[in-house]
Each structure stands twice: as C-alpha cells, then as structure tokens.
Write a structure and sequence with these properties.
404 residues; 14 strands; elongated
Length: 404
C-alpha cells in the first residue's frame, strides 16, 4: 500500500506536469470517440435508412444495367403483380413494392424544370426520408396528385394546391403531358435529391407513360440484409425462365460497401495514430517529471528501494494518469458525441456524396467506448513503461550525478 501513497504524493507535488499529461490523454480519448462516433453513425445511417429505402433486393428487366439513359423506358418488367404476389408470400420478405422511374419536365406558367419522376404505390413503405420530411400534405394517393420538394416549388413559383404540368416522352416515343395538383411538399436531408425527384402514384405514372401493367423496378426489404444472397440465389433458380435481373444491396451499393468495409481498418489506423502521437507527448512529459526527481529516486534506492519497486511506483503513477485522463476524456467526449447524434454534423455536399444527407448523425456504441477507454489507459501505461525501463538502468551514483 505504500507505493500508491507515494505515487499520489508525487502526482500532487507536480500539478502542472500532471495536468499536461492528463490533458493529453483526455484529448486523445475525445478524438477517438469523435471519429468513431462519426464513422459508426455513417454506417448506422446506411443500414437503417439508406439501405431500407433502396431495398435489400431490387428487380429490373434483364439488360437494365447496360442502359445509357438512367430513365430509359426500354427496360421494363411485365406483369409485376405476379412477381409481387410470389415475393409477398415468402416469410423472409417484409415489404415488396413496384416503382416506376422516369424522366420528365415540370412546367408552371412559363417556368420549367427537368427532373426525375417516381411512380409510387399509395402508402408506400419506402422513401421514409421524404415522408418524414413532409412539410405539408402527403405523398400522392390520388391519380391527379403530385408531391414535390419545397425547393422545386420555389424554383417554379408554385405552392401547395397549385396545378403543375408534367411533360414526358412516353414509352412510344411521343410527348405527353398531364396536369396534377400539388398534394405534398417535402424537404429531405439532401438538396440534390429534392431537386431531382417528384412523386405521383404508380397508376398515374403508368397512364402518363403509356406503360399499363409494367414497371421499371421492384424493391424488396427482407427480414435482414444478411440473407439477401441466399434469397437471390433461390429466386434466380426458380425464375430461370424469366427475363428478370435480381440484385442484392451489395450489388446496388458496391462502391459504398467497399468504403464501409474499410471503416474498421480506417478506425484502427486512426486509433493507432492518436495513440502514437499521444504516447510520445505523454512519454516526454513523464520523462521530464521523473528526471526532475532523480535525486528522490536515488535517495529511495540508497535506503533500500528495489529496482522492481521503483518500476512499480512509476507504473502506478502512469496508470493513475491514464485513468484520470481517460475519465476526463469520456466525460467530455460522450456528451459531444451524443450532441451530434441528436443534432447531426453538417457536411453539405460531402455528406450527400455518400448518400448520407447534408447532416451526419453520430452513434455512440459500447465497442467504441471500450476501445477509447482502453486506448487512453494504454497510452499512459506505454509511456510509463518506457520511462520505468530507462530509469531502471540508472545506478544510484548516476542518479545523484544527474541531479547535480
């Protein structure tokens, strides 16, 4: 019990050096919590929101991947209701819906905007960000209704309840237009998305495009994303006679999946870099702290303190620094992560590029908390370990000579 008492006495005798070491550890823990909270939040956003809205599985017409125009009507799925009936009969399918995506132009009193249209089923389970971002009205449920973003409404100088003309080139290559009433105004967390899409019912889109009993896309949400590969294999086997392309969420978001799979590696190197930088600062501070007391250590060695006990004393001090700095880092870092989990961190176009929206919402996990805690204590322990080994090689005479 004597070593902890001496360690506490030595720590309190040098408050400036102690505060420097504790602050360095606190800062390193805060940085790790911040970075891991941001990356965990991006991963959670992708799996809980983006992935759910785009579906765990998507069905398209065969050859759809080779289209030049993303809104091409050359590739459509015939009789989608038959496929939907089979899909909805499966126990592993939660939602299965058809969507009709097409290009068009919105026109209002001389103003126009080229954009994309989406024919959605009434009460769709997808496009949650649009439904949650509804400022007035809802997604269309009637054949003469349309939903646009508030940004689109501003550009066209229209408001809720106003008429809006949709002009398209139908599946026969002929221009066709119909007037709709604005029944919904929304604002999602992506300005790019808001000006890129408007919504009408799937029935209205089929009439507008002259595509009765056809659709461009079927989205399926399963009981979990991990079973997508097995489900696709079963569907491709049973639908071998149908010209339907079935893709999993990994195929749909291939480039983003690679990035997310590298997150763990990225976080490891971030943590390692923070530990190295913090450990170098802490080691130098501990070295100065200890070498200022070489006479004290020499005296204790002269009256019988063993090298092992001297090493233990330095390690106890290091662990004390680590625990205090880590506790301070967690006390400061956790509220910071929770704040950004609630308010989000504005990323602008950078966030939209990763399909995360303009704000990235952080996430605090037990894993990141445990990793940051262990790293904070470890930096102090490593620094103290090095100092303890260096001082352990000093003889008593050298200690007194260095003190002078």
């Amino acid at each position: 019990m004597i070593l902890p008492r001496i360690a506490v006495l030595n720590i309190t005798k040098h408050p400036r050096r102690t505060l420097l070491i504790v602050f360095a550890i606190m800062l390193s823990v805060m940085v790790m919590l911040f970075v891991e909270g941001m990356l965990d939040g991006m991963r959670r956003t992708f799996f809980q929101r983006t992935l759910r809205d785009t579906g765990h599985i998507q069905l398209h017409d065969a050859g759809w991947e080779d289209r030049i125009n993303q809104y091409s009507l050359e590739y459509t799925i015939p009789e989608p209701e038959a496929l939907l009936s089979e899909l909805r009969a499966r126990e592993d399918v939660v939602d299965a819906e058809k969507f009709l995506l097409f290009g068009g132009m919105l026109i209002s009193e001389g103003k126009n905007l080229s954009t994309g249209g989406v024919g959605v089923p009434p009460e769709t389970a997808f496009y949650t960000t649009v439904k949650e971002g509804m400022e007035r009205g809802n997604l269309p449920t009637g054949p003469a209704e349309i939903a646009v973003s508030t940004r689109t409404a501003e550009l066209l100088d229209v408001s809720f309840g106003d008429p809006l003309v949709v002009l398209v080139e139908d599946s026969q290559g002929s221009p066709y237009y119909i007037e709709y009433e604005i029944a919904g105004l929304f604002e999602s967390d992506s300005s790019q998305f808001d000006t890129s899409f408007f919504f009408i019912t799937h029935e209205a889109a089929a009439e507008l495009l002259y595509l009765q009993d056809r659709t461009t896309e079927i989205r399926v949400n399963l009981t979990g994303p991990d079973i997508a590969d097995d489900v696709v294999a079963e569907l491709e086997s049973s639908w071998s006679d149908r010209d339907v392309s079935v893709q999993t969420w990994r195929d749909i978001h291939g480039s983003f999946i690679v990035i997310f799979e590298l997150f763990d590696v990225f976080m490891f190197f971030i943590d390692l870099l923070v530990i190295i930088v913090a450990a170098s600062v802490i080691t130098n501070a501990i070295l100065m702290n200890v070498f200022e007391r070489t006479r004290e250590f020499g005296t204790m060695r002269a009256i019988g303190l063993k090298k092992r006990a001297q090493f233990g004393l330095i390690m106890v001090e290091g662990v004390s620094y680590g625990v205090a700095g880590t506790a301070a880092g967690i006390a400061a870092g956790v509220p910071l992560v929770l704040y950004f989990a609630e308010q989000g961190l504005y990323m602008g176009a950078a966030g939209e590029a990763f399909e995360m929206g303009r704000r990235i919402y952080f996430s605090l996990t037990a894993t990141s908390l445990a990793r940051s805690t262990a790293a904070g204590v470890l930096t102090a322990v490593l620094g103290s370990l090095y100092v303890g080994l260096v001082l352990g090689r000093r003889r008593i005479v050298e200690m007194f000579q260095e003190a002078h």
